[in-house]
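Figure 3 (text version): C-alpha cells given as input.
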C-alpha cells in the first residue's frame, strides 16, 4: 500500500512538473476574434497561405517536441537526484555544496518589491525567518531611493489586526514582540520617498519555544555509525524531529543528520547518527551546527512547534572514522521499490 501511495505521489509530482514546463495556450483578444458569422460562404485562403499554415503547424510541432524533450530532461534530473539520495540512509545525508537545502534552514529570503509605479524597487531585510519570543526582530529597509520618513506596522496575518506601529530610525526597526502575538506576522513599511509614498512588506514567524538543547555529548562508534547523544529539555510532549548539520570544527559542512522520536516532558536524550560513508577518512574534530527542534503536528489542524538552541555550535570531539565497521547501508523494502521505479524512468 505504501509503495502504491509513493508511486502515485511521484507520478503526481512528475505530472505537475509537466504542467509547469508545458507552454501555456495563447489567449485570443476580443479584438482579434471575427466580428461576423463565419460559415460555408467564407472565402478560402489562397494556395500560398495554405502553405504558410502548414509551415506554421510544422513549426508548432517542432516547438512542442523541444518542450517535451525539456520536460523529459527535467524529470530525468529529478529521478537521478532522488536516486543519489537513496544511496545514503535518510538519517545521514551528505552535504556536497554550499547551495544544499540542508543549510541555512532559517534564512530570510529578501524579495525586491517594485515601488513608485515600477520605476524602482525596495525590500525589507531581516536576519532570519523564524524568531522565538521574547527575542527582538531586527528589520531594515533597503532601497536606492531617497527616503524622507517611514513607519512600520506589525500585523496579524490571520486577523489583519495592527499589533503595533513603530517610527523609523534611519530606515531600521527593532521589534519587541508581545507575549500574546500570533505565529504569523506581516511587517508593512509605509515609506515616504522623495518621489512619492509607497509600501513594502514581508512575512516572518514568531514561536514560543517548546524545547531547547541542554547539552551535546561526544560522538562514539557503533557499527557503521557515529552516534551523537543530544540532551533536550522538552516543555510539551509529542513527536519530535531533531535536525542538525555535522561540520568539521571551524570548517565546512559534512552531513545533515536527523532523528524522529516521541518524547515526554523533561530532559530527554536523542541520538543523532552519522553513517561512515559521509565522514572524512581518519581522525577529525567535529561539531554540530544549525540545530532544528521541531514538534511535529499530532493531528490535522495542529501546527508544528519549534524549539531553540542557544549556541551556534556544539563540539562533538575528535573522532576516527576508522573505528566504524564497513557495513553497507541496508535499504528498507520501500526504498528498494522506490529505487527500482526510478531506474525504470532512467
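Below: residues designed for each position.
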Amino acid at each position: 500500500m505504501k509503495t502504491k501511495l509513493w508511486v502515485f505521489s511521484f507520478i503526481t509530482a512528475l505530472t505537475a512538473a509537466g504542467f509547469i514546463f508545458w507552454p501555456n495556450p495563447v489567449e485570443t483578444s476580443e479584438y482579434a476574434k471575427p466580428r461576423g458569422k463565419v460559415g460555408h460562404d467564407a472565402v478560402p485562403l489562397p494556395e500560398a497561405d495554405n502553405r504558410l499554415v502548414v509551415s506554421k503547424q510544422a513549426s508548432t510541432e517542432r516547438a512542442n517536441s523541444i518542450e517535451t524533450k525539456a520536460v523529459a530532461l527535467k524529470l530525468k534530473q529529478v529521478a537521478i537526484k532522488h536516486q543519489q539520495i537513496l544511496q545514503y540512509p535518510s538519517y545521514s545525508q551528505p552535504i556536497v555544496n554550499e547551495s544544499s537545502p540542508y543549510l541555512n534552514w532559517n534564512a530570510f529570503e529578501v524579495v525586491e518589491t517594485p515601488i513608485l509605479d515600477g520605476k524602482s524597487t525596495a525590500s525589507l531585510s531581516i536576519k532570519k525567518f523564524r524568531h522565538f519570543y521574547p527575542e527582538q526582530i531586527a528589520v531594515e529597509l533597503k532601497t536606492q531611493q531617497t527616503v524622507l520618513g517611514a513607519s512600520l506596522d506589525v500585523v496579524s496575518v490571520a486577523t489583519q489586526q495592527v499589533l503595533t506601529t513603530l517610527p523609523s530610525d534611519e530606515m531600521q526597526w527593532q521589534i519587541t514582540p508581545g507575549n500574546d502575538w500570533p505565529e504569523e506576522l506581516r511587517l508593512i513599511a509605509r515609506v515616504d520617498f522623495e518621489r512619492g509614498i509607497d509600501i513594502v512588506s514581508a512575512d516572518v514567524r514568531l514561536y514560543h519555544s517548546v524545547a531547547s538543547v541542554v547539552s551535546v555529548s561526544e560522538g562514539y562508534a557503533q557499527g557503521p555509525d557515529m552516534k551523537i547523544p543530544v540532551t533536550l529539555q522538552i516543555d510539551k510532549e509529542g513527536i519530535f524531529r531533531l535536525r542538525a548539520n555535522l561540520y568539521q570544527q571551524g570548517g565546512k559542512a559534512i552531513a545533515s543528520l536527523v532523528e524522529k522520536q516521541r518524547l515526554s516532558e523533561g530532559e530527554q536524550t536523542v541520538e543523532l547518527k552519522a553513517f561512515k560513508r559521509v565522514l572524512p577518512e581518519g581522525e577529525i574534530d567535529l561539531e554540530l551546527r544549525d540545530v532544528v527542534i521541531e514538534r511535529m503536528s499530532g493531528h490535522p489542524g495542529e501546527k508544528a512547534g519549534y524549539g531553540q538552541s542557544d549556541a551556534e555550535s556544539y563540539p562533538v570531539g575528535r573522532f576516527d572514522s576508522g573505528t566504524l565497521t564497513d557495513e553497507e547501508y541496508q535499504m528498507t523494502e520501500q526504498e528498494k521499490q522506490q529505487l527500482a521505479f526510478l531506474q525504470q524512468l532512467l
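The longest helix spans residues 47-85.
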